[in-house]
Structure formats: structure tokens, C-alpha cells
Amino acid sequence: MIELLKNTAEEFKNTEAQKDSFLNAYQAIFIDRNFKINKYPDMKFSVEIGPKTDLGTLPNLKDVYITMLPGGDYKETAQQAINLVKKGYNPIPHFPARSIENNNQLKEYVSMCKDGGVKQVLVIGGGREPAGKFDSSFQLLETGYFEKMKIGIAGHPEGSPDISDSDLEKAMIDKKPYADYIVTQWLLDPQPIVDFISKQSVPVHVGITGPLKISSLIKFANIVGAKNSLNFLKSNFSKALDLLKPKDPNELIEKLKMHTDFFHIYTFGGLKETNKWLKENKYV
To answer: How far apart (Å, rounded) are the C-alpha atoms in residues 42 and 51?
Structure first.
């Protein structure tokens, strides 16, 4: 009789535990579906725009990077950064070494930014033949002109079409002492990113794309030399119809948010769709 009572009590305890477990799971699902509570509140997003982007179209993100593409005018990038400061954003202008002609031009560009209230920069090599004396981001960093500014440098978990893997590794060793953080090229295959993050001593801001058609992603993957991501795309989206569907970065973020809190969005001109995606997912 005593043994029977013990078994009955044990069964009751297990049943209650199962009920509690079910209720907790249901509550979590209900809250997540209906109130969209962010399980990773420390997740931070930044976005990249051009020097002529209409600032009225920007999503509600604090950190905004401004490109200086090959052939671009550094004064336009600096002015866009100053405009962003006035609107309360934290602008991060690009400083592409191979697009800057000489020391005087670099000093003027840095001075314009500092005088306009810019506190942060992204120093990169830049995908072109050198316009002047600089051919690497390390050369810009060692001038000391960025003193008292927060400095980001570029990371390439899948390599770069502009530099060999061995030279890329050496460049990272040379410039990392100057860096507060790293911004990666945009990628789709999570494993190279996880491997890259595990080797770094500073925060890594992972490059992602906003919502974009697969056909467009393949085009841009070819341009930036993202070899693994290109193969990942081709193997995961074989149907012709899939190529016409927009793909968002939610799946990639889900796989990486245990490894980094920072995601940098390359919009490739699709700022409207990126803004919509950020709002729908309660990231802003």
C-alpha cells in the first residue's frame, strides 16, 4: 500500500512538472508571437548609405556608415557625415586608402569630419588601383590622424578579390592594434563567420544584406569575392523561381546571435525594403 502511494505521488509530481513545462513553453510562444519581445535585447544594427542618400529615408538606427566609392569625392562623404551629426545620428564615414591621393587630402578629410563632430571612422583599403601614395589601410592608420576617434577596420572571413589570403592575414596583424572593432564583408554562410569571430580580440560587426532577390545576392557575391557564400547560395537555391524571391537575413542572424551582438547592413540601394524588414522584426 505504501509503495502504491509513493508511485501515485511520483506520477502526480511528474504530471504537474509536465503541465508547468507546457504552460511555460506556451507562454513564451504567446509572448513572442503577439508582443514580439526581443530575446536578444543587446543586438545592435548599423546601416550603410551613400553620400547623396536622402536622410529622410533612414531607419531609426543610431550608427550610419557613409561610403566613399572609387571615384567619389571625400568632401561629399564628409558633408553627409556632418549632416547626420546635426540630425542626432552617429555617422561613420569610410576612409578608403586607395581613393585618397596624398597626405594633405587625408588631413583635410579627417579635419572636416572632426570639426563637424564625427567621432568614429571605418578605415579600409578600397577596391581600386591607388589614386596616389596610399595603397593600404595600415598606411592611413599609422599617420596618427585618427587619434581620439573610434576606429573600425575591415575583415574578410572569405578572402578578398583585391589581395591574396597571405597578404590579407599579414594586413590584419598589422592594423589590428589600431582597431576598436572589425566590420566584415557581407556573407551568407555562417560557418566562416563563426570561425573568424573566434580568432578575434575585438568585437566583430557581421556584414549582412537587407532583403534582396537571390539573383541579386549572387551578383554582389561575385563582386565582393565571397566564394563560400556564393557556393552556399547556389547549393541552397537551385530552383529558378527561388532566384526571384526576396531573401532576408533572419536565418543567418539566428545562427550568429550567440557569437556577436553586432550586425552591419549593406542595403545595396534597397533602403526602403531594409527599413520595412527592420520594423517588421522589431529591430527598431
So the answer is: 29
Q: Which three cell numbers stand for residue 255?
A: 545562427
- Highest-pLDDT range among 128-137, 138-147, 202-211, 249-258: 138-147
Residue range 218-234: average pLDDT? 51
pLDDT digit string, tens, across residues 162-190 = 778 888 889 899 999 999 999 998 887 88
Per-domain boundaries in the chain:
1-37, 41-280
Q: Is CATH 3.20.10.10 correct for 41-280? A: no
Residue-level pLDDT at 165? 84
Query: For the chain, what is the mean pLDDT?
Result: 81
